[in-house]
Write a structure and sequence with these properties.
By secondary structure, the protein is mainly beta. The protein has two domains: 584 residues, Beta Barrel (Maltoporin, Chain A); 44 residues, no CATH class. It contains nine helices and 38 strands. The longest helix is centred in the first third of the chain and has 27 residues. The chain is globular and about 75 Å long. The two termini are 26 Å apart.
């Protein structure tokens, strides 16, 4: 709690300093009237009349790249404010390990649009900031968007961002965020499988444009740390018996449940990103431009088991080690992969005194090209080079692992539809050195129709091709993964009363890679086809609001890519404004349903979700009650989660095999847009 207070005071202090600087600058430079910036957005030198965030503008890198002439208005809404964690903010479409800042995996397989050679640890990507979507503010006043979520023993998320104009042509921004949940209210009463993780992120950005509007620059630095203990989940094989089902475990007390790792196991992820984007107009300010983009990413992963706990924790490792895997492969008719099969344990298998996993990856991008906008039409062409360095730690040394460089050619197009109905966009990229690595996609985003298609071949992640530790190891030469996708979603706007849409999506995936029951990567020979259909709507009649999403999935290979057949979220709420909009109340019930299926398990050594066929997960209905409150620029929420679990402890759910869902709990927090 002391840290939260300290960071709050720090943001307030920085905000007051920048506001004081604004006042001094306005006193020194008296400018009559208003000064329009070069994109047509009006900035006001005297900020004393500003009342709220609707006067705060920002751009993203994509806006500058595609030569858009309109800036965006800062979001001041409080819809779904109670969904403060990343899982909730993304619509509950992920499996989790039951706690904030834990690993996430989508219920469906999502397309990969970036063709770079990835490390393959993607379970924490939803927590990280996408530099291409980072907001570069353009405001003469201090802009602080602060999120502070608190609760028993520091439940949740704390963060914020500050934007400030140095002068009409320079602007700077700061970003900070942290996740930490030692445990949830209610969770400690059910089991000790709760696994507290911490995610801390910090970033800086700056934006510049010349007086003649021909040169523009955006630069950013972003770093995150993700660390915490690993539990391995509940020791399900010893807890579940003929007399006691997985559902019965929710009614047991903490002392009756045990983790695979009581203590001594931790993981650490560290990533640093640098980005510089700049452009110069050769003809006019938009008709012909040259641009250059530089990206550098450094990533490190570390996993360790203490020397004193390896004997206790080997109950988990023995299920997945190389000796076990070689044994089950020798069995006839794939018997080692049958549901409920438990291989014999070899207690003589050596894990070393200090079992340790360590990897480093680094890549450097240089991208150069030309682009142009003529009215509603935009086009670009570019060439991009990527250099890689990949290393594995053995004892105290890092051993280089060869990774090929990549050289791409590609381009983008955009056609804006008349009367602000939307836009048609297209992208193509091809690897000249590999020859069979490419991505071609097109989208239409309009008032009445969204849709698109994707054709791509992407490289197999580095982790699936080579991994070595005392726990498990492999050496694979895997083919690129192919995907074809078609998506269409007609929609009906209902004005201030909301909108209604239906959608359909068909995917065909070749050479799909998954992690099998023993957490080993496997490439599938035959194609996998799965399709999704559903509806989304938001309808508001008077103060009563309904927001819903329903997804039905058909999948021809549940054994290697399990997906729930039905996924649904529904909200029934009451929304009302008081005192001419100065005060707003938004309260109601938030529900979600995921049908029963064999949800993925999680292996902490490689930080990968893998298939399992022993326990069905999900198949649950969740009911939350929330109150969101807004007074001018200050917003607060209160949430009672999983009311069904409060009524009956056996109604709990499995977030992931071996990891219980949070259960009943209370959370509250505040979002405060701080201005002058």
């Amino acid at each position: 709690m002391k840290r939260i207070v300290y960071i709050l005071l720090s943001f307030l202090f920085l905000s007051s300093i920048t506001f004081a600087q604004t006042d001094n600058k306005d006193d020194e430079e008296v400018v009559e009237g208003q000064e329009p910036n070069k994109d047509g957005v009006t900035l006001e030198q005297d900020s004393s009349w500003l009342k709220g965030p609707h006067t705060t503008w920002y751009l993203t890198k994509d806006d500058v790249y595609k030569i858009h002439f309109e800036e965006h208005v800062m979001d001041s809404s409080y819809t779904h404010l109670h969904r403060y964690d990343v899982h909730g903010q993304k619509g509950y479409v992920h499996q989790t390990l039951g706690n904030n800042a834990s690993a996430l995996r989508s219920y469906w397989d999502l397309p990969i649009t970036d063709l770079k050679q990835t490390m393959g640890i993607t379970a924490f990507d939803p927590y990280t900031l996408d530099l291409n979507k980072w907001q570069y503010y353009n405001a003469y006043i201090p802009v602080t968007d602060f999120n502070g979520v608190v609760g028993q023993d520091n439940r949740g998320k704390i963060g914020g961002q500050i934007g400030r104009n140095i002068d009409p042509y320079w602007a700077a921004g700061v970003y900070f965020q942290r996740y930490s949940e030692p445990y949830l209210i209610g969770r400690d009463k059910i089991s000790n499988s709760y696994n507290g993780q911490v995610h801390t992120a910090f970033g800086l950005n700056t934006r510049y444009e010349s007086k003649d509007n021909k040169y523009k620059l955006m630069a950013s630095f972003y770093q995150y740390f993700h660390e915490g203990p690993e539990s391995g989940g509940l020791a399900m094989k010893s807890l579940v018996t003929e007399e006691q089902s997985p559902d019965d475990l929710f009614a047991l007390g903490r002392g009756q449940l045990t983790n695979y790792f009581p203590d001594g196991v931790s993981s650490f992820k560290w990533s640093t990103n640098y980005q510089l984007y700049h452009q110069y107009a050769l003809v006019d300010s938009a008709k012909l431009q040259v641009f250059h983009e530089f990206n550098r990413n450094q990533y490190r992963y570390q996993y360790a088991n203490s020397e004193s706990t390896i004997a206790t924790n080997r109950l988990y490792y023995d299920q997945f080690n190389d000796h076990t895997y070689n044994y089950v492969l020798s069995l006839d008719d794939n018997a080692g992969f049958a549901p409920g099969y438990q291989p014999p344990v070899d207690t003589n298998y050596k894990y070393g005194d200090k079992p340790y996993v360590g990897y480093k990856k680094e890549y450097i991008d240089n991208k150069m090209g030309v682009k142009s906008r003529l009215g509603p039409t935009f086009w670009s062409g570019f060439i991009k080079h990527r250099f890689y360095r990949y290393q594995q730690q053995n004892s105290d040394d890092f051993t280089p692992i060869p990774v090929d460089q990549q050289l791409f050619v590609g381009g983008d197009v955009e056609l804006q539809l008349p009367k602000k109905l939307g836009a048609l966009t297209g992208h193509a990229e091809y690897d000249l050195l590999k020859g069979n690595i490419f991505n071609i996609n097109a989208d239409i985003k309009s008032k009445y129709l969204n849709g698109g298609f994707v054709l791509q071949n992407t490289l197999a992640p580095l982790f699936t091709q080579q991994f070595s530790s005392v726990f498990l190891s492999w050496q694979n030469d895997m083919d690129p993964i192919s995907r074809q996708q078609i998506y269409i979603a007609p929609q009906l706007p209902l004005g201030e009363n909301g909108n209604f849409s239906v959608f359909g999506e068909v995917n065909n995936i070749g050479n799909y890679i998954y992690y099998n029951k023993y957490a080993r990567p496997v490439q599938v020979d035959e194609n996998i086809t799965y399709s999704r259909y559903g509806t989304k709507f938001k309808i508001k009649l008077g103060p009563i609001q309904q927001i819903a999403q329903v997804v039905y999935t058909q999948n021809n290979n549940q054994e290697v890519m399990p997906t729930p057949e039905i996924f649904a979220t529904y909200e029934l709420s009451y929304v009302k404004e008081f005192r001419d909009g100065m005060i707003s109340l938004y309260t109601g019930f938030d529900t979600r349903f995921i049908s029963s299926y064999y949800g993925y398990a999680f292996n902490p050594v490689t930080q990968q979700f893998h298939v399992q066929n022993d326990y069905k997960t999900e198949g649950n209905f969740n009911l939350d009650f929330f109150v969101n409150f807004k007074m001018r620029r200050c917003m607060a929420f209160l949430r009672l989660s999983d009311l069904m679990n409060l009524a009956d402890a056996r109604s709990g759910y499995w977030a992931t095999a071996g990891y219980m869902g949070p259960g009943f709990g209370l959370s509250y927090g505040v979002r405060w847009l701080m201005f002058e």
